[in-house]
Amino acid sequence: MEAGGRVKKCFVSSQAVMSMLMVQVMATGMQLLSKIILNNGTFVLALMTYRHVVAALCMAPFAFYFERGIKSKMNWSVFFWLFLNSLSGILFAMGLFYYGLKYTTATYAVNFLNLVPIVTFVFSIIFRLEKLGLSTRAGKIKISGAILCVSGAMLACLYKGKTFHLIHKTLQHHVQVNSSVAHMARGTIMLIGSCLCYSLWYILQAKLLKVFPFKYHTTMITCFLASIESAVIGLCLDRSSAAWKLEWNLQLLTIIYSGSLASAATFCLISWAVVRRGPSYPPMFNPLTLIFVAVLEALILGAEITVGTATLNKYGSELVSRSLL
Predict the structure, then answer these.
(1) What would the mean pLDDT of 227-239 be, rounded to a whole number?
(2) Is position 247 within any domain?
(3) Which of 73, 198, 239, 251 could pair with 93 in a Cys bridge, judged by C-beta atoms 3.0 to 4.6 Å apart?
(4) Quick one: pLDDT at residue 130?
(5) What is the pLDDT of residue 170?
(6) Cα separation of 56 and 263, whole Å?
(7) Which positions ≥6 away from 23 have C-beta within 8 Å?
């Protein structure tokens, strides 16, 4: 009985860690698939519209089965927070990230996700969701993790060093995709904006789940609102049928994968973790996505790995280790 109790306690304590690891694995697949189809000309807002329609449909059965009878909880105040949630966390944060990803590389774009923990931490202190606690061990760990976030992201952006490949150069033409013209300055600005919006989204998650503690309905309604917002703005920018046409190809696979796993499942796991560990906990695992993406982008797409990226991977591993303490 005592051994069984220890196993159960270990399992319960590791649930938050395992859920965040799953989020990073699903995010890695989404980043790579999205980079490929964006380089091949996919319209960003069409991708976001279809992705979140799929996400809303995936969440609907869970919402209506597990969270029945919540109509009395819905009001204009809740709808306002849901609207802000979709606006900041999907339309702005994800839209800017997609455009930043399109103009740069997957590894470079994911670098900026390492800034999300520190910005979220600062926002949490400003909005009094967390205490700094410099005199405590936990506070010192948070500060050191924040410093690692900033130093790692700055290292990858400002220093590249020597480049090397994980596969032989003669093999790269079999796996490379059409590369878009790199507008690094434009992409960097969009990625910074995406970082700020993602951090604000984590703060809004904490507030929203206090006034409307139904994660399945929250995810479903947020995705539904985001698909409408993306469609409206997308149609204002491009009404051509070619931009919105769907075919049986990698684009459709990316939409289904992103909608069902990278949006629906990920949003539920993040909401669950925010309730239990606070808004600063989920983004602490973002450096893992950088490690996964850097390696897989080099293996699958033939991208270069630089000394700066390799060093940042070391920073990322240390940061995640600290977040588990």
Answers:
(1) 95
(2) yes
(3) 198
(4) 64
(5) 43
(6) 9
(7) 266, 269, 270, 282, 285
Whether residue 36 has pLDDT greater than 70: yes
Classify burial at 179, counting beta carbons within 10 Å of its beta carbon; exposed 0-12, middle 13-18, buried 19 or more. Answer: exposed
Q: What is the pTM of this model?
A: 0.79
Specify the number of domains making up the chain: 1
Neighbours of 107 (CB within 10 A): 27
Q: Give 38-83 as a DSSP string.
A: HHTT--HHHHHHHHHHHHHHHHHHHHHHHS-S-GGG--HHHHHHHH
Residue 210, in any domain of the structure: yes
Least confident of 63-72, 111-120, 132-141, 248-257: 132-141
On whether residue 11 sits in a domain, the answer given is: no
The SS3 call for residue 240 is coil
- CA dist 219 and 86 (Å) reads 9
Residue pair 190/103 in contact (Cβ under 8 Å)? The answer is: yes
Give the model's pLDDT for residue 252: 93
- 232-261 burial, b if ≥16 CB within 10 A, otherwise e? eebeeeeeeeebbeeeeeebeebbebbbbb
Average pLDDT of the residues in 38-61 = 93
Please provide the distance, in angstroms rounded to a whole number, between the alpha carbons at the two ends of the chain. 27
**Rounded distance, CA 28 to CA 36, Å?**
13
Q: What range defines the domain where residue 260 resides?
A: 39-66+74-160+181-280
Interval 53-97: pLDDT, tens: 999 999 999 888 888 877 667 888 889 999 999 999 899 999 999
Q: State the burial class of residue 122 (Cβ atoms within 10 Å of its Cβ: 0-12, 13-18, 19+).
A: middle
